Amino acid sequence: MSMLQAFFQIGQDHKNIFAGLDISRESDLCLEYMNKYPVIFLTLKSVEGKDFAGALEQMGVQVSNECKRLSCFTPIMIKR
Description:
Largest sheet: none
Distance between the termini: 27 Å
Oligomer: single chain
C-alpha cells in the first residue's frame, strides 16, 4: 500500500501510520483530506501480454476490478 493511498483512502483510518511525521502536525490538512476520498490503485506489475492489445485488455480488467471495489462508482461507469 502506498502512503498516498493510506492517507486519502475513504473508509479506512491510518492515522497511526502518520503519527510522528510532519504531516500529522498539519491538523487542518488532515481533517480536510485524510480518509475522505476513494483511491484507485493500479500496478503494471501483473499486466502481461503477448502484444499491446493483450496488455491493454489486462489493464482494463484491473481498472474494472478497482471500480467494482469502490462502491461510489455506478455500474454504468464500469461497463466494459
